């Protein structure tokens, strides 16, 4: 019985988190993006300290041509969908240990949801 309750609670939590990501506010996410823009351009083909985030949704990790990724990111084999981005933005070094990204993460789920909604507009 306890296992059923735990499974149901876990499913509800996953559903809630997915809904939060899907319901992010892109306009608010543009403001959150200012933290990212220090290192990541939003224009296609541009590189800086980090790769461009133009078209990041649905893109394979370590796939921006000409950018020098860490060995950890090259080996990560992630697809940057909303769930993966949410996990990465929460704690980049937890999802990809050894990543070069020094950003500590976004602790607020609302900020992550809004940022992901904004990133979805960069296409």
Summarize this, please?
With 123 residues, this protein is mainly α. It has six helices and no strands.
Annotation keywords:
single chain, 123 residues, mainly alpha, Cytochrome Bc1 Complex, Chain D, domain 2, 6 helices, globular, disordered N terminus
Verbal overview:
The protein has 123 residues and is mainly alpha-helical. The protein has one domain (2-119): Cytochrome c-like domain (Cytochrome Bc1 Complex, Chain D, domain 2), CATH 1.10.760.10. It has six helices and no strands. Helix 1 crosses helix 6, helix 2 (26-37) crosses helix 6 (109-119) and helix 4 (82-90) packs across helix 6 (109-119). The longest helix has 21 residues, at 2-22. The termini are far apart.
Could you tell me the radius of gyration in angstroms? Answer: 15 Å
Number of domains: 1
| Approximate helicity band | 40-55%
CATH overall fold name: Cytochrome Bc1 Complex, Chain D, domain 2
Helix-strand string = HHHHHH
Taking pLDDT < 50 over at least 5 consecutive residues as the criterion, the unreliable ranges are 1-21
Q: In the CATH hierarchy, what is the class?
A: Mainly Alpha
Identify the overall geometry: globular
Question: Strands, helices and their partners?
Answer:
Layout: H1 2-22, H2 26-37, H3 71-76, H4 82-90, H5 92-95, H6 109-119
